[in-house]
């Protein structure tokens, strides 16, 4: 009987050890993926400021209904203000 309990204890200890190692490995792998840093080259974008381009942008914002959520000046606004749900603001 003592031998059986001894072997059950050893098997239990090995299983607990394997579970601890597995949890540690998953934690380390997920932590590595979450903290990965990507280097991205910044590219400058030429934004046209001539009247034709501005009018075309206004036209696109109107037909795609951007103005409905972001406001007439696209500066963002409160989209939802409900005490039961919360406040949702649109991006600027």
N- to C-terminal distance: 73 Å
Global mean pLDDT? 90
Number of contiguous helices: 3
In terms of DSSP E residues, the strand content is 5-15%
The main sheet comes to: 2 strands, antiparallel
User: In terms of structural class, how would the helical and strand content be classed?
Assistant: mainly alpha
| Strand numbers in spatial order across the main sheet | 1-2
Radius of gyration over all CA atoms, rounded: 29 Å
The count of strands amounts to 2
> N-to-C SSE series?
HHHEE
Given as residue ranges, the uncertain stretches (5+ residues, pLDDT < 50) are none
What general outline do the C-alpha atoms trace?
A: elongated
* Whole-number total of structural domains: 2
Helix content: 55-70%
Concise description?
It contains three helices and two strands, in the order αααββ. The protein is mainly alpha-helical.
Give an overview of the whole structure.
By secondary structure, the chain is mostly helical. The chain has two domains: 1-34; 51-89, no CATH class. Helix content is 55%, strand content 10%. It contains three helices and two strands. The protein has a two-stranded antiparallel sheet with strand order 1-2. β1 (78-82) and β2 (86-89) form a beta hairpin.
